[in-house]
Amino acid sequence: MDGKRIAQLAPGIGLCVVISLVAIGLQHLEELFTGRPYLEALVIAILLGTAVRTAWNPSLHWVPGIVFSAKTLLEIAVALLGASISFQAVMQAGLPLILGIAVVVAAAIGASYGLCRLLGLPKRMAVLVACGNSICGNSAIAAVAPVIGAKSEDVASSIAFTAILGVVVVLTLPLFVPLMGLSETQYGVLAGLTVYAVPQVLAATVPVSVVSTQLGTLVKLVRVLMLGPVVILLSVIAGRSSPAAQKSLSFSKLVPWFIIGFLSLAALRSWGAIPDAVLSLVMPTATMLTVVSMAALGLGVDLRVLGRVGGKVTLAVTLSLLVLIAVSLGLIRLLGIA
């Protein structure tokens, strides 16, 4: 990375770091006065970033660094998190859970699409909302859009509300633990099946437990891998052969590099190739990068956008999410996950 690029990124990254430091400071104050962090720095960073973005629209001077923090730093953090995962824990989850994830994704896409069409949304818009809710939010929407030939306004509306609802899910999902009496394992599976983005799983599970975080991340990564088959299937159905559609089918689109990095580090950890001394450095680094990324994600959410998104889209996305949660809870009960 040359000096010009660093200078271009510095302002936005610096802003995200400042917000992150404030969030970490507020968490320490929580611990000082209450004895425990009811809101983790991850969540506080999202809230602070969202508040800043709603009150102030960053100019182009800030945007490159914010985008870099929200994407690249976030992906690095997720890859590093693989060092905390052991495949032995994956095997304990079992093949039924892995197959169940695929069933949940398929069922959620079908149900969401049906709801959207019932509410009168166009077919392409319905596909975007269904795939975004059921797989991985904005990433799924961006991957599916060129395959089905979605209009730019449909993509913008889907992504705008997904960004806002994604933050709402992160903040409210932990309430399911006391309200429904979920165990740490059950909650981890629920978070992995319902939260939109991989990094957001961290924000939703870290306040609960390490077990929830590890299992939630694992389940979410398996869910993300469902994007590949879905995009290929939609491409076949659409019968598209445009350059845009072909690009969406590239290996890097179907299996992002950070998933490969995550799985590689998980494999090294499982084989005992990562010493504890190295792990003690990797995990704090991953945590800090995640907080910075959360601040950047918050800076991309303007609450005022909610008022400009159509009521049908708002209702469709919300109902689709509720269906996904219901199906996920059903899977947890069906598999007898304790």
Automatic annotation (TrEMBL):
Spans traversing the lipid bilayer: 7-26, 68-87, 93-115, 127-149, 155-177, 189-209, 221-239, 251-271, 277-301, 313-335
InterPro entries the UniProt entry points to: UPF0324_pro (IPR018383)
Keyword entries, A-Z: Cell membrane, Membrane, Transmembrane, Transmembrane helix
Membrane topology classification: Multi-pass membrane protein
Compartments, as annotated in UniProt: Cell membrane
Entry keyword annotation includes Transmembrane: yes
One Pfam family recorded for the sequence: Cons_hypoth698
Entry's family note: Belongs to the UPF0324 family.
Stored PANTHER family: INNER MEMBRANE PROTEIN YEIH-RELATED, UPF0324 INNER MEMBRANE PROTEIN YEIH
Listed name of the protein: YeiH family putative sulfate export transporter
Source organism (scientific name): Microvirga terricola
Lineage of the species this protein comes from: Bacteria, Pseudomonadati, Pseudomonadota, Alphaproteobacteria, Hyphomicrobiales
